[in-house]
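Thread: sanity check for a docking pose with flavin mononucleotide

Original post by kr_44:
Hi all, I'm comparing my docking run against an independent structure prediction. Below are the sequence and the ligand SMILES. Could someone generate the full complex and paste the C-alpha cells? I mainly care about where the ligand ends up relative to the chain.
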Amino acid sequence: MPTRLRVLGFAGSLRKGSYNRALLNTAVELAPDTMEFIIFDLASIPFYNQDVEDHEDPASVTAFKRAIAESDALLICTPEYNYSIPGVLKNALDWASRSAKTTPLQGKPVAVMGASTGGFGTARCQMALQNLFAACGMHPLNSHRVLIAHAEEKFDESGRLIDTATRRIVKESLTALAEWTLILQRGKTSVQKV
Ligand SMILES: Cc1cc2nc3c(=O)[nH]c(=O)nc-3n(C[C@H](O)[C@H](O)[C@H](O)COP(=O)(O)O)c2cc1C
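Reply from moderator J.T.:
Ran it for you. Here is the predicted complex with flavin mononucleotide included:
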C-alpha cells in the first residue's frame, strides 16, 4: 500500500470557539484515505525576535519547523484580521521562514481555507498570504480556495460544519491538495533523475 501523504494543519486563531479550528477539524474528518493529518497548535510560538533566533530557536519553534519539514504539505485554516493575516499566523510563518537558506517552507505545497463572520470569507487574508508564499518559495494550491463567509450560519454550536455545499467544497479542496502534492513530488523525482 502506498504511504499516505502527511499534511500538517494549523489554525490562525487561538480562540477556544474558533470557526477556523472547527474548519481544521472538519478537514481532518473529510480528508481522503490517502492523507493523514498532524495538527500543530500555534499558541506555543513566542513573538519573533532575531536576538532570540541568533542565540537559539525556542523549543516550540524547533518543533514547528520539524513538523513542517516532516510533512508533505501544509493546510492553513485562518481568519482574516483587518483585511490581512492574523498576527499569530504571520508570526509563526516568520519563524518558520528562517533562515532563508534552510527554511522548511521552501518548496512546500500549501492549501488555505478560511472562515470569517464577514462577507468575503477571508479573501483578502488569502491574497496577502500569496505574497508570503512567494517570499518563502512555497507552492500554493491556487485552483481550490475555501472561503467561508458568515461562518456563524455555516457551523453549529458544537463547531460542526453543517452547510452541505461547504462540506463538499472542503472535501474537493483536500482531494486537489493531494493531487497537487503528488504532482510536485513527481516533478522533484524527475528533476533528480536528470
Ligand atoms: C482583530 C480582528 C479583526 C477582524 N477583521 C476582520 C476582517 O478584516 N474581515 C472579516 O471578514 N472579519 C474580521 N474579523 C471578524 C472575524 O472574521 C471573526 O472574529 C472570526 O470569528 C474569527 O475567526 P475564528 O472564529 O477562527 O476566531 C476580525 C476579528 C478580529 C478579532
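The longest strand covers residues 5-11. Hope that helps with the comparison, let us know if your pose agrees.
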